[in-house]
Amino acid sequence: SSGDPAHRPLTGRTVTITAGGTREPLDPVRFLGNRSSGKQGVALAAAALAAGATVRFIAAHMDVQPPDGVELTTVETAAELREATLRLAPQSDALIMAAAVADFRPDSVSETKVKKRDDGENPVITLTRNPDILAEVVQQRGSSGGPAVIVGFAAETGDSDATPLAHGLAKLKRKGCDQLVLNRVGRSLVFGQDSTEVTILDAGGAEPETVSGSKNRIAEVVVSRVALALGSAG
Ligand code: CTP
Ligand code: CA
């Protein structure tokens, strides 16, 4: 049964999950956003709760309701997501970064609504890089401690340089996380869909594992891999 400890391998563990898509304001009524629905994050939270974990859920904008039973922190921008993640990650056994974080933000935010102009001049938006939160958590773990297991998510397309798998393996190395859940996009897969196919890459050298099915199914596999990694981490 679900009360059997063998089926609740994350009992006593804390898992922080980021989900949804960040929004970067341009002015009081407009923002730059992305199409992340938050569904994968909700599925991950449900799987971690079912496995017995305490779940800290950091929600950027989501099309769906955040799950019940989590400690919820809501954020809007990448800067707010960074602050919440760097605060909660050190007290967590695992971090799963399912949020779609804006790589750039407008380098200034207008305090008043941007208006059309009579002189025909159009506004120009200039962008600044946002910090890489996942890479910072990995760095923070190296210096002052952090989650024993850090999982990233990445959506990749193949291009003339490399296959999605090669891009994913390079990203796993670059970020320094323990596992990277690779979505191959561009075939009407992923955004807002209930079902998808991913390949899970492992920094420990385990063979890549391909999982297809619902986001719930993928979440169960990701969470059981986290439990396995925590088990062997002691
Ligand atoms: N991520 C993050 N901080 C950012 C951007 C991304 O923590 N500023 C995290 C995402 O939550 C995800 C992982 O990094 O878990 C990979 O995101 P992705 O956008 O694929 O990686 P990038 O390094 O931004 O690479 P790209 O230039 O391909 O977008
Ligand atoms: Ca990115």
TrEMBL record:
Pathway: Cofactor biosynthesis; coenzyme A biosynthesis; CoA from (R)-pantothenate: step 2/5; Cofactor biosynthesis; coenzyme A biosynthesis; CoA from (R)-pantothenate: step 3/5. CTP binds at residues 103, 113, 131-134, 153, 171, 175. The chain holds residues 175 to 408 of 408 of the full protein. Its EC number is 4.1.1.36, 6.3.2.5. It comes from the Bacteria. Residues 15-234 are annotated as: Phosphopantothenate--cysteine ligase. Keywords: Decarboxylase, Flavoprotein, FMN, Ligase, Lyase, Magnesium, Metal-binding, Multifunctional enzyme. Its cofactor is FMN; Mg(2+). This is Coenzyme A biosynthesis bifunctional protein CoaBC. Catalyzes two steps in the biosynthesis of coenzyme A. In the first step cysteine is conjugated to 4'-phosphopantothenate to form 4-phosphopantothenoylcysteine, in the latter compound is decarboxylated to form 4'-phosphopantotheine. Catalyzes two sequential steps in the biosynthesis of coenzyme A. In the first step cysteine is conjugated to 4'-phosphopantothenate to form 4-phosphopantothenoylcysteine. In the second step the latter compound is decarboxylated to form 4'-phosphopantotheine. One of its GO terms (biological process) is pantothenate catabolic process. Binds 1 FMN per subunit. GO terms for molecular function: FMN binding; metal ion binding; phosphopantothenate--cysteine ligase activity; phosphopantothenoylcysteine decarboxylase activity.
